[in-house]
């Protein structure tokens, strides 16, 4: 016997999974509503793509579609809306002229950062209503939540 504890995959029963799902879904809807007036006609998809470009930098249209988990034609329409608003630019990929590189403009980056800041402050204000124990539990859960989203954290 080596004395090492064996590890097993974490398990969650159906009720716990349902509670987690509902809490995350409600929180996500609440977060999307914060700053909705600043989004204008861009909608959630446009702001999400703009936030990804601001955080991750310029990328191929196909890579952005993968990150946003939408079909390339759908994302192409979203990017066209961002372009017409002056928030993104599309250029040819120098390595492959058939592909496009999309980048957030300076104005687009300011819009994305402003919305993120507004939402962060709204969330911080809401978290301040928690008891110290709830706050500590939420902070302790952050690594697990970050592990759940992996590279999607942008």
From TrEMBL:
Q: Name one GO molecular function term.
A: DNA-binding transcription factor activity
Q: Where is the HTH marR-type domain?
A: 17-147
Q: Which SUPFAM superfamilies match?
A: Winged helix' DNA-binding domain (SSF46785)
Q: Which InterPro entries match?
A: HTH-type_Bedaq_tolerance, HTH_MarR-typ, WH-like_DNA-bd_sf, WH_DNA-bd_sf
Keyword DNA-binding (UniProt): yes
Question: What keywords would UniProt list here?
Answer: DNA-binding
Looking up SMART domains in the UniProt record yields: HTH_MARR (SM00347)
Give the Pfam families listed for this entry.
MarR
What PANTHER family has UniProt attached to this entry?
A: CONSERVED PROTEIN, HTH-TYPE TRANSCRIPTIONAL REGULATOR RV0880
Protein name, per record = DNA-binding transcriptional regulator, MarR family
């Amino acid at each position: 016997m080596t004395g090492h504890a064996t590890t097993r995959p974490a398990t969650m029963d159906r009720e716990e999974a349902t509670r987690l799902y509902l809490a995350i879904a409600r929180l996500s809807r609440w977060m999307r509503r914060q700053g909705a007036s600043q989004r204008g006609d861009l909608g959630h998809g446009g702001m999400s793509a703009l936030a990804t470009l601001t955080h991750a930098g310029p990328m191929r249209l196909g890579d952005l579609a993968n990150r946003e988990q939408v079909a390339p034609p759908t994302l192409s329409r979203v990017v066209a809306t961002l372009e017409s608003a002056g928030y993104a630019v599309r250029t040819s990929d120098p390595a492959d002229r058939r592909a496009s590189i999309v980048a957030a403009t300076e104005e687009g980056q300011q819009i994305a950062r402003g919305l993120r800041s507004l939402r962060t402050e709204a969330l911080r204000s809401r978290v301040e209503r928690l008891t110290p124990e709830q706050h500590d539990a939420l902070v302790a859960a952050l690594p697990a939540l970050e592990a759940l989203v992996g590279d999607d954290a942008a």
